[in-house]
Amino acid sequence: MEEQVNRLVEKTWVWVLILCQGKTSLATTVTSRLNALHGKDTPIAVYIPMDGYHYSRAHLSSMPDPENAHARRGAAFTFDGPAFLTLAKNIRQPLFSSSKTLYAPSFDHAKKDPVENEIEIAPSSRIVVFEGNYLSLGKGEWKEAARVMDELVCIVS
């Protein structure tokens, strides 16, 4: 895995998407290495897991077939694709000294629900590392979000 990380870190990407088993470990490692190579106090890379875009359990309960929604939690339709697309488009906006910090949701595994505005995306962030199973799904909001990314990477472990 060290060789894969080195290859990824050697490139300068505005966006990286990682799909694989062990995706969280690899995404956090790449993000940490990019920030270490940058060598400044202000991180240049930020990691955003797709887990934060799970619909809440309350939202799943409000769906037309709540039993199916809960049973299939983790399927593409149980994620908030529109919210992810909004973030992807907002991140792609030009940066100015007046640009505001953006926020992404995280996921609280103990509560089994997303936590809104938990991950800070500072205007100094130049590389955003997303990871998740549906980021290159090829339909709906996922397809549109993939179009705004500079690089889509699938690493098979």
TrEMBL record:
Keywords for this protein: Kinase, Transferase
Organism field: Lachnellula hyalina
PANTHER family per record: URIDINE KINASE
Superkingdom: Eukaryota
Protein name per UniProt: Putative uridine kinase
InterPro entries registered for this protein in UniProt: P-loop_NTPase
One GO MF term attached to the UniProt entry: kinase activity
